[in-house]
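Following up on my earlier thread - several people asked me to post the actual chain instead of describing it. Fair enough. Here it is, all 536 residues.
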Amino acid sequence: MADDIVAVTRADWRGEARDLIELATSERPVAELLRRGLEWLTRVVRFDLATLFLLREGKLVAVVARGPLASEQVRRHELRLADFPSLRQALETRRARAFTDEDHSHGDGDPFDGVLDLPPGHSCMVVPLCAAERCYGLLTLDRTECETYPQSVVDLVEVYGQMLATSLQEVEQKSTLERLHQREHEHARLLESQLGGDEVGVLETSRSPAVRELALRARQVAETDTPVLLLGETGTGKERLARAVHRWSTRAEAPFVTLNCAAIPEGLLESELFGHVKGAFTGATKDRAGRFQMAHGGTLFLDEVGEMPVELQAKLLRALQEKTFEPVGSDRTVRADVRILAATHVDLRQAISQRRFREDLYYRLSVFPLRLPPLRERLEDLPLLCAFLLEEQARRTARRGMKVTPEGLARLAAYDWPGNIRELANALERATILSRKRELGAEAFDLPARAPEPKRPPEPAPVAESGEEGSVATLEEVQRQHILRVLARTQGRLYGPGGAAALLGLKPSTLQSRMKKLGITRLEQYVATPPAPPGK
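Reply from S.P.:
Thanks for posting it. Predicted structure:
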């Protein structure tokens, strides 16, 4: 034994084992791990050749070799496992064994026949590399001396083989997790793109000055970790903007996690936010991470935060201030580095006055508010929005190349869109499914009917179209002409039943805003001249 084992003390052995465990848990690639593993083996046992074979499709393929007899030919050596029953038996039994002179004479031959000129009866050992349910390959040790490795040496190297196999298993699991993470990340990025969370989209290319200013401010705040409060009516695209802010930020490669505070039952919302431990409540059969933990290092988007119960708002405030929380049923404090984006259509100041929302939480969330204008205030973006949404929907409907005609745009522009962009998306998808043509005209859109209009008086002369003869009027020109006609019918009256706002299906304030944008400023010039008395 003294000739086969390198002299080491018990303390040395513990140190060597500790080094191997450290090597096994390191972030090294497989090739480096195996090379360093054989270097470690030279400290423990004597050999002239140590070769690591990995199992690949029924073959043992040499991947690393150390010792005086190691050569490129050895490192490229391959064995068909079916040709060596003794090697197959070592893998099946998961036990290391030393070969004797009788094994060489009557067994299945030397694995290195034709590669090395080793004397009959030379020292040879085979060590399986197995961990859990998996066998990764074999380690072979050879010496030119004609004697058998003692069993004590075999037992020692067998322990080494088990440790090395465990390290291989660790590396394989890490590699598998990295591939899954990369696949999930790519899927998430694709999903974000499909959801309209792209970097440009219709924000920075908008024809609305208000939306372009919004995009500029969103890009500026995205570079920080400042909380952002997204305000706006339902369906204005708050989640799309939140995804864009995340992708513009330094956290873009980290998770983007969402939670709709209005969609989760009140009794489960705390668990959804902070997680819970097994037994915390009926049905909690195992520990479960909350959205804060899932979003660690990334962004947490709290949609409809104005609907959060008041009693839970205090815990959310603490999590925002201290970046710590306790899962439901646990006294263990968890830390999470999360950037918060929140959204609501609720008037939070009014909710504060009604004691439905904490004032301190409001000031914590609204460091940088961004208001998304409703669709009726950015109708100049209708053509761009329609093109964008139709392209997005083509993945679901398989109807590519669809577009809205000028008449269709005029029909859409005459509607008030209480559901905003979400309602527009639904109207377009419905029209795409029902229409047999690729062009969607006014007749393609089944929008709610308006109040019956009075008999039309003589209309003012149409506004001349710009450009070459036969060119199509712009959307602004179509809107302007339509409002002028309605004003003429109501003799310039905006308010009340039968007024211009009621006939157009708009709020009077919205109509005034649109008239200002279109340059319609003097109502009295649209009052029709009263008819002459009879007989005059």
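The chain has four domains: 14-173, 196-278+287-371, 375-444, 475-518. That should answer part of your original question.
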